[in-house]
Amino acid sequence: MSDEIKTNTGRVVGHWDGQQATQLMSELANIRQQMLKEGSGDKLIAREMPHRDQLPEDLHSFKAYHIWGCDAGGNCVVGTNANRIESIQKVRSFSLIEHH
C-alpha cells in the first residue's frame, strides 16, 4: 500500500506511513496550510487516506464523523478538521449509538 496522501484531483501532497496518528494529524494540518497558501481548490478526502486497511472493517461505513486514519496502535485521527485523536474503542462505542 502506498503512503501517499492525495487530493481529490490525484495530486500527491504528503505522505503517512501508518505508524503514528499524531504524524497523520500534523501532516494533514501542514497540507491544509500549504493548499490555503496556494489558493488550491483541491480537497482532501478522509476515506482516501493511506493505510485505510488499518481501520477495522466494522467502521468502514461509520458516518457520525470523519475518520481520517487509524495507526498501527489503534489510535484514529477524527473530526471534520482532522484535529482529534480517539482510540478505535472510543469510535466503536460511539458507533454503537445509531448515528450511521
Please characterize this protein's 3D structure.
This protein is of the alpha+beta class. It has one domain. 26% of the residues lie in helices and 19% in strands. It contains two helices and five strands, in the order ββαβββα. It has a three-stranded antiparallel β-sheet with strand order 3-4-5. A hairpin with a 5-residue loop joins strand 1 (4-6) and strand 2. It is globular. The mean pLDDT is 93.
- Give the CA-based shape: globular
Strand order of the largest sheet: 3-4-5
Helix count? 2
Q: N- to C-terminal separation?
A: 28 Å
Q: Number of DSSP strands? A: 5
For the biggest sheet, the summary is: 3 strands, antiparallel
Mean pLDDT comes to 93
Classify the beta-strand content into a percent band. Answer: 15-25%
Defining key terms:
3-stranded antiparallel β-sheet; 100 residues; alpha+beta; two-stranded antiparallel sheet; single chain; 5 strands; 2 helices
